[in-house]
Design a protein that fits this description.
Shape: flat
Number of helices: 1
Strand content: over 45%
Number of domains: 1
Number of strands: 8
Low-confidence stretches: 1-18
Length: about 110
C-alpha cells in the first residue's frame, strides 16, 4: 500500500512540476521517507519527508539558483505555516494555516 502511495505522489509531481523524485528511507523504523524533487539531475526543487503517505515536518523549496526561497511546516499532511524568503536570505512573508498573509516591514526588499 505504501509503495502505491509513493508511486502516486511521484506520478503527480512528475506531471505537475516536471521534476524527478528520489526517495531516501529514514534510518528509523517510524515509516518516514525522506523525499527530494529535482528539476534536473542536479537542480534540487524541494525536499521534505512523508509519514504514512502525508507530508510531515518542514519542507524546503529552492530556486533555480539553489537559493532557499520557501519553507512550509506540515503536521499530519496539513500545512501549518509558510515562510517566503527574499534572495538576500531574509524572511519577507509569513502565511499562517488560515492563509492570512503577513509581510515583514523590515525585510529590506
Amino acid at each position: 500500500m505504501r509503495n502505491k502511495i509513493l508511486l502516486y505522489i511521484l506520478f503527480y509531481f512528475s506531471i505537475h512540476y516536471n521534476c524527478s523524485g528520489q526517495s531516501m528511507p529514514d534510518s528509523n523504523a517510524s515509516g518516514a521517507v525522506k523525499w527530494k524533487y529535482y528539476r534536473t539531475e542536479t537542480n534540487l526543487y524541494e525536499e521534505g519527508k512523508f509519514v504514512s503517505g502525508r507530508r510531515e515536518g518542514v519542507w524546503k523549496y529552492y530556486s533555480f539558483k539553489h537559493i532557499l526561497y520557501k519553507k512550509e511546516k506540515y503536521i499530519h499532511g496539513l500545512r501549518k505555516w509558510t515562510y517566503i524568503y527574499h534572495s538576500n536570505g531574509r524572511m519577507i512573508i509569513y502565511i499562517n494555516q488560515k492563509g492570512e498573509v503577513q509581510k515583514r516591514p523590515d525585510c529590506g526588499c
